[in-house]
Amino acid sequence: MCRVKNIVEFPDDGLEQPPRIAVVISSVGRPECVAFLWRRLCLQRVLPDRVVFCVTRPEDLPSTWPETGTDAPPVQLLFSDKGLPRQRNRGMEAVLGETDLMVFFDDDFIPSSSALLGIARTFEAFPEVTGLTGTLLADGIGGPGLELEMAGQIIDCWDAEAKTAEAVASPRELATRIGLYGCNMAFRSTAIGEIRFDERLPLYGWQEDIDFSARIPGRKIVTDGLVGVHCGIKRGRERGRLLGYSQIANPVYLWRKGSMKGRFALKLCLRNLLSNHARALWPEPWIDRRGRLRGNWRAIIDLCLGRADPERILEWQ
Hints:
The protein is α/β, with parallel strands linked by helices and 317 residues long. It has ten helices and nine strands. The chain has helices at 31-41, 84-95, 115-125, 148-159, 162-169, 189-192, 208-215, 240-257, 262-279, 289-305; strands at 21-26, 50-55, 75-79, 101-105, 109-111, 129-139, 173-177, 184-188, 219-230. Strands 1, 2, 3, 4, 5, 6, 7, 8 and 9 form a nine-stranded mixed β-sheet that branches. Helix 8 packs antiparallel against helix 9 (262-279). The termini are far apart. Residues 3-11 have low confidence and may be disordered.
């Protein structure tokens, strides 16, 4: 595994008007992820103007913060009730009027050292774009997850390659999206306005990223200007039964709300229902398939009875 880093010669940032960048990270029960991500943010070629960590209690934060030197960006610590949409709203509202670009990273997303520079350059290159998500070198969400150190090594290899500088110098639009992948997404603050994450999608907030980004006006894209690794760490995620209920109830709620197309909502529901059925007898060690399946069917019964609601999972914690 490549361990060399920072050998690529980058040009000056070249930004006509360097934007103010705020990074918001929400976390529960994963202080080691917070510490690792904080260290990586301090290595950015363009440092953020503010980093906001919104957590539920002091134990969610590292007991000892990593040494980062004197050039570390300002950090703000906020406490909120548990729930990804709620925590992201609190973090965003703390800085929204003081930033040009709002960046949301999951606590287990590891950005390349040029991630924030690439975000700024992409928005500069595409003035009509209001939101973007990046390119993942690896995504552990569909498997057992990637350890932080492994993700760091993958990023170090990427940072050492010449094409890294090329991608940042001339970021490309790879695809257009209605909704963005919430582990790494960025928006122009002016486009956000009064739009907030829907707090009726509680706890893990499944599909809250699609809902939020779909309601942002303007064009949203996938770009190679932002690159990173999503570890997909399973620690701190919701129990199978709760997530299983959300897998059915949340898409239906968002379809009725109008932020998700009916075909896509149906596809999500069927895909999860079928995969949970198929793997229930031989589940992956890292997925509670039977719990998810129970949650799926409870949501289906509630739909038939006319009482399905994403917030019902709060009754079963």
